[in-house]
Amino acid sequence: MSIVTELRALTRTQRATFFACFLGWTLDAFDFFLLTVCLKAIAADFHVGIKQVAEALFWTLAMRPVGAFLFGAMAEKWGRRPTLMINIICFSVFELGSAFAPTLASFMVLRALFGVAMGGEWGVGAALAFETLPAKGRGFFSGVLQEGYVCGNLLSAAVFGLLFSHLHGTGLLTGWRVMFMIGAAPALLAFYLRFKVEESPAWLAARAEKQGKVAAPFEWALVWKYLPTFLYLVVLMTAFTSFSHGTQDLYPTFLQKDRGFPSGTTGFVIVIGSLGALSGGILFGTLSERFGRKRAIVIAALLALPMIPLWAYSHGPVAMAAGGFLMQLAVQGAWGVIPAHLNELSPGPVRAVFPGLAYQLGNLLSSKNGPFQEALATKYAGGMLGPVLAGTVVVVSIVVAALTAAGPEAKGTVMTVAED
């Protein structure tokens, strides 16, 4: 089925909710990736090296689990919709604050706070979306929702490419600061949520069961009750984030360093890879409706293995672009199933907390993936990244497939009503 057909099958409320959640994740990623494209300019403005500014990326990733728990707990108590509105306003405010940071230290603090806000958006947004959407077609919407992250990356690159060279101000109007001011625009999405999106039916049903009282504050006892499930999800997401970081973070460096590609050619290969990611997420998300979540993930993960020669060992830009497309089709194909799979595996009473927190803890545990790969290349491969990237795919794709196959599946779980 086409995306138009799938969307037409939804009610107006369901379409508005899905659009808002997709756009929230896209704009969140847009704000995050603005930092990656502006690293050089920020370093020059603060008169430091790129390495020092790049620490902001670590702090953003490190603080995301805090946000996943904080905003997830708020969503359990006060509802998904108001929490998501607050969350979007927060990451927009911290993005705008970053534009006015007078020192590198203050910039780091603001990026850490942005990480808290970013950590909350995925879990709360996914819970709101899947508790509102019908079970039928959930895999398709999972694939589309997850690839909002890729869309945010492409959007940041497009805005940077179109505007940055025309921004030549000084002081608080330097190019990168204006870019971050633009990054505050997602706050407008809160108005859309306020007037077009309704609260999660599951949360409303749970509140009604409590005789109209607001749901009780999130309790750590719930985590202990579902601890085995939570630990499994954390391990699974550590493997998944290693899969994505392991094939994406150092690949531009590999293209420039190992293959000698100029920036324009490198950008071309990365964009083609992003298109593969978009295609893979939607394709395998949709296939998971027919073949099941686990089988779709396992097939996509193992499909990365035969892509290694073209992806890591070819030389021409066209061949490398083809390899990048096929590799990211497989990697993000597996990822496209994750929003639905994690939410289906998460118990109803903790659905706003579990998926996002497990996801962000996985991000934290794999946050040193890049330095680890670089160290391996230096020690064992004469500085060449190709063999290390290829080895990473071999190991991680098999681990992702094995963990998924060994775990449970709850495809079709009803989420639009309260669960015990």
Overall domain count: 1
CATH topology: Growth Hormone, Chain: A
Main sheet makeup: none
Residues in helix, %: over 70%
Number of strands: 0
Class from helix and strand fractions: mainly alpha
Instruction: Indicate the CATH architecture.
Output: Up-down Bundle
Number of helical segments with 4 or more residues: 22
The CATH homologous superfamily is named MFS general substrate transporter like domains
Rg estimate, integer Å: 21 Å
Protein architecture, described:
Residues 17-409 form the Major facilitator superfamily (MFS) profile domain. With 420 residues, the chain is mostly helical. The chain has one domain: Growth Hormone, Chain: A. It is built from 22 helices and no strands. α4 (50-78) runs antiparallel to α20 and α16 (293-303) runs antiparallel to α18 (317-336). The protein is globular. It starts with a helix and ends in a 14-residue tail after the last helix.
Helices and strands in order, then pairings?
Blueprint: H1 3-8, H2 12-37, H3 39-46, H4 50-78, H5 80-99, H6 104-132, H7 138-146, H8 148-163, H9 175-182, H10 189-196, H11 201-209, H12 220-225, H13 227-248, H14 251-257, H15 263-291, H16 293-303, H17 308-313, H18 317-336, H19 338-345, H20 354-365, H21 369-380, H22 386-406
Helix pairs in contact: 2-6, 2-7, 2-8, 2-10, 3-4, 4-5, 4-6, 4-20, 5-6, 5-9, 5-10, 6-20, 7-15, 7-19, 13-18, 13-20, 13-22, 14-15, 15-16, 15-18, 16-18, 16-22, 21-22
